[in-house]
Design the sequence.
């Protein structure tokens, strides 16, 4: 059975095209649920009108689906709670 750690490793390879930091590090992944060979991921964007949003969703879906033990990936975009960068992300973005 696929593990959350394996999925996280994949998510760490997907970068936000504007910030050049991976989705996991940015805290854009809110939840990962695994039900046998199906993975459900709740994620958000840095802004609700993110122009790269549809591309990121498709990239998450396709990259996680490449894992051998995964048959289906559902990505749900949520905006509650709103994304807030942690202190380390803020520092890398020059916001502190």
Sequence:
């Amino acid at each position: 059975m696929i593990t959350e750690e394996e999925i996280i490793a994949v998510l760490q390879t997907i970068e936000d095209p504007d910030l050049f930091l991976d989705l996991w590090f940015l805290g854009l992944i809110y939840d990962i649920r695994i039900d046998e060979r199906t993975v459900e991921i709740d994620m958000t964007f840095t802004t609700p009108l993110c122009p790269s949003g549809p591309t990121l969703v498709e990239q998450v879906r396709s990259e996680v689906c490449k894992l051998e033990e995964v048959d289906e990936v559902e990505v749900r975009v949520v905006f509650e709670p709103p994304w807030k960068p942690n202190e380390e992300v803020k520092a890398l973005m020059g916001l502190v």
